[in-house]
Amino acid sequence: MNWGRWFRHRRLGRLHLQHAFPRARLDAIEQAIRAGEAVHGGEVRFAVEGALDNHALRRDLSPRQRALDVFSLLRIWDTNDRNGVLIYVLLADQAVEILADRGIHARVGDDGWAAICRDMEAGFRAGDVEAAVTGGIRAVNALLQRHFPASGPRPNELPDVAVVL
């Protein structure tokens, strides 16, 4: 087990999460997702986690592996056009992972998602959580609009509310 990581995760638990993502910021995230989905045919979910639990840390679970778990848990793969996208933030590691279902991932590829992650992580390191998150959501929405433009009214297949784990 990486003891430095374990201490960081224990120190940056729930309190840090509530400070970085107060109710008003979570509401703003929901509004940004809703606004984006009005102009594209994709589905965006945002999930944030303050720290991993002891079991995940003992297993040395990476942010990417945890994002895969969350992708499945939130059923993001369950959209008609396979164009669901998860933006996952693990605060204790200052890590951002973007996972996309195969319909949109085939068009954007790893490099497109990685660039957005790097920009968001830089914003977190600079201490500007709001700009990092809203910028990331805007960037994901822009890619979805390019590859899955809105074509009339459609059902909202996944909830827009930000998920706090």
UniProtKB/TrEMBL annotation:
A Pfam family the protein falls into: TPM_phosphatase
Q: Which InterPro entries match?
A: TPM_dom (IPR007621)
Residues in coiled coil: none
This protein's source sits in the domain of life called: Bacteria
Specify the TPM domain's residue ranges. 21-142
Q: What name does the UniProt record give this protein? A: TLP18.3/Psb32/MOLO-1 phosphatase superfamily protein
Q: Which organism is it from?
A: Fluviicoccus keumensis
Q: What is the lineage of its organism?
A: Bacteria, Pseudomonadati, Pseudomonadota, Gammaproteobacteria, Moraxellales
